[in-house]
Design brief:
Blueprint: H1 10-24, H2 36-43, H3 47-59, E1 63-66, E2 70-73, H4 87-115, H5 118-136, H6 142-156, H7 159-167, H8 169-172, H9 190-201, H10 205-228
Antiparallel strand pairs: 1-2
Helix pairs in contact: 1-3, 4-6, 4-10, 5-6, 5-9, 9-10
Keywords: DNA-binding, Transcription, Transcription regulation
Domain HTH gntR-type: 8-76
Pfam families: FCD, GntR
Length: 229
């Protein structure tokens, strides 16, 4: 199964540059950043990319955009994609995204149980077989794990839901990129991929959702336990 190299989104790169600027200038909470016009010139990007980057940073409580007044630093200790990561803030960030994931992917699981067809069943089965193979050989399963969850959205057969997922995929992907620097953090979810799939194959939404939430409970427990250690 071919792997696609994930491209970096422009707004993510711009967001990183804004964070570097905050660090380099030693800005503190409440300090004002340059205007949108000044930032576009500083980073050599368009207004739309800059505004998307600002929305991205607002969602993580790093900046606050006040209409008619300007852009302000909100929390310099918030989780960042570059530089040193504070574990407690990464935990907070992951738990926020997990709340969204439960709602969004939970609905995708429900729809997938209703709409999954034979072609998608074959795709998901092949994905799980590769997952099993990677696991048995001690290989990194992050990419194949992520692919399995992407296939759930495809199986849901709702283009709008899939579009919403794509719009936050870079945040979603943080669960599969070794949070806290521990690639095996969510290894205990492994068997539930198979039981969830069984629910989808049987068009049993109740069973599939139950297994999905077991998986998410393990993810949440792992995040909370690691922060406490």
């Amino acid at each position: 199964m071919n792997r696609k190299i994930q491209k970096r989104h422009v707004h993510e790169l711009v967001a990183e540059e804004i964070q570097k600027y905050i660090e380099e200038k030693n800005l503190q909470e409440g300090d004002k950043l340059p205007s949108v016009e000044e930032l576009t010139q500083l980073f050599g990007v368009g207004r739309s990319s800059l505004r998307e980057a600002l929305r991205y940073l607002e969602a993580m409580d790093i900046v606050q955009v006040v209409n008619g007044k300007g852009i302000y630093v909100k929390d310099i200790g918030s989780f960042r994609y570059s530089g040193t990561v504070k574990i407690d803030n990464e935990k907070k960030f992951l738990l926020y995204v997990l709340d969204v994931r439960r709602a969004l992917e939970g609905k995708a699981v429900e729809l997938a149980a209703r709409n999954i067809d034979s072609d998608m069943i074959d795709k998901m089965r092949a994905c799980l077989e590769e997952y099993d193979d990677f696991k048995s050989r001690g290989l990194n399963t992050a990419a194949i794990d992520y692919e399995f969850h992407q296939l759930i959205y495809e199986a849901a057969a709702n283009p709008l839901l899939n579009s919403v997922f794509e719009s936050i995929s870079e945040l979603y992907g943080k669960f599969f990129s070794g949070p806290f620097g521990v690639k095996e953090l969510f290894d205990d979810t492994y068997p539930f991929h198979r039981t969830l799939f069984e629910g989808l194959v049987n068009h049993d939404a109740e069973h599939a959702l139950r297994e999905f939430h077991k998986m998410m409970d393990i993810v949440e427990e792992a995040i909370r336990k690691y922060e406490q250690s």
